[in-house]
Structure formats: C-alpha cells, structure tokens
Amino acid sequence: MNESDAEHAEHELRRRAKSALRKQMRAVRGALPDSACDARSEEIARRVLNLPELETATTILAFASIHNEARTRPIIEAMHRAAKRVALPRVSDNELVLHLVEPDTDLVEGAFSVPEPPKDAPRIEPSDVQFALVPALAVDQRGYRIGYGGGYYDKLLPLLDSACACAIAYDFQLIAEVPDLPFDVAVDLIVTDARVIRAVV
Q1: 49 CB contacts (<8 Å, ≥6 apart)?
Q2: What are the domain boundaries of the chain?
Q3: Dihedral angle of Cα 149, 150, 156, 157, to the nearest 10 degrees
Q4: CATH number given to 3-198
Q5: 64, 91 in Cβ contact below 8 A?
Q6: Per-residue confidence of the chain (201 residues) as pLDDT tens digits?
Q7: Which of 7, 98, 156, 186 is the 20 to 30 Å CA partner of 111?
Q8: How many CB atoms lie within 10 A of CB 108?
Q9: Buried b / exposed e across 110-143, counting CB within 10 Å, b at 16+?
Q10: What CA–CA distance (Å, rounded) separates 142 from 159?
Q11: What is the C-alpha to C-alpha distance for residues 15 and 36, in angstroms, rounded to an integer?
C-alpha cells in the first residue's frame, strides 16, 4: 500500500468513525427528557452570557435549536435585550447565508426542518460577525466537532474571520477526540453545562 492509499484508508476509517459517533450521540441526546434539556440549557446560557468574547461583540450569529439541542432562545433573547445585532443562518444553494433577525421576526421552516429567517430579512456578511454560536453533536477539547454531516459550518467557519466561534453542547457530548478530517474546522470555544473550554489544537 503506497502513501496515497494509506491516507485514503485512514480518511475512510475516520469518516466511518464520525458517522458512528454521530448516530450514537443523536440517540443519547434524543433520550434526554425535556426537563433535563431545559436545566442543562440554562447552565449553558449562563456560561455563554458571561463570556468576555460575547460582551465585546456587537453582531452575533446564533442558530435556532431544534429537538433536544441546547436551547438557544434564552441566549438570543438576552442578546436582543442587550441591543446587539443577532443573525441566524439560512440554507441557500448548499451553503449558509446570514440574515439579521429582530425579536418579532417570524422564522420559517427551512432545510432539514430547521427554523430560519425569511429570504427578505436583512442579509449580512460572515465578516460582520464577532461572535458565533455553533451547534455540535459531539466536540473535543481541541474544538473539533461532529455536526449533522452536511458540512455547512465547516464551509462557513473560515469566513467568520472576525468572530470567536463557540460550540455549545451538553457536557456528555464532550468526547476525548473527534476523528477529524482535512476539511474540518475547529471552533475557538466550547461551552457545556459544566465548563468553558478555550480550544487548543
């Protein structure tokens, strides 16, 4: 086996491991009762809202959580109360575009049934964002995460060149090591219901 074949085999092993971890973590998270999601999400929100990186940011990228994801609504509402600009992503042509939302903006069902801003909401560029909340099914202390498999955030994160990227997850979603691939992009911070980690690659 030459070097190219060995590299391909390694990548395939990592891809399969990520797929297995994604399935496993979805099942574990899906078993959480709503009361546990709410309590853990309150702790996550408290830690996020105390971050100095968030305090100094004026434009925030968040996401609308679904199912048993860490609840983002309390963070978004707090950001609006603090008079910060809040953007949410919308899937367009296989990438994420960012639109500003107000407290009274009616979200629409978008790709994968995720609520997203309407097309006519004001659009901003990724470079306008100073702090970004990023979803994760699993994440390690280096900041590498397992998402839902579409690669949307791995495409977006390099464009957030002025932003601190922060993955939020329940503490049990923190794993020893994500089997990262060359196109994976690490976040800067990880916030769980038990800790704040500044990623070190």
Answers
A1: 75, 78
A2: 3-198
A3: 0
A4: 3.40.50.10420
A5: no
A6: 566 777 878 889 888 999 999 999 999 999 999 999 999 999 999 999 999 999 999 999 999 999 899 999 999 999 999 999 999 999 998 899 999 999 999 999 997 889 999 999 999 999 999 999 999 999 999 999 999 888 899 999 999 999 999 999 999 999 999 998 888 899 999 999 999 999 976
A7: 186
A8: 12
A9: beeebebbeeebeebebebbbbbbbbbbbbbbbb
A10: 19
A11: 31
The two structure tokens encoding residue 115 = 């609520």
CA distance 53 to 55: 6
Residue-wise DSSP of the chain:
--HHHHHHHHHHHHHHHHHHHHHHHHHHHHTS-HHHHHHHHHHHHHHHHT-HHHHT-SEEE-----TTSPP-HHHHHHHHHTT-EEEEEEEETTEEEEEEE-TT---EE-GGG-EE--TTSPEE-GGG-SEEEEE-SEE-TTS-EE-SSS-HHHHHGGG-TT-EEEEE--GGGB-S-----TT----SEEE-SS-EEE---
- The tokens describing 189, both together, are 């911070």
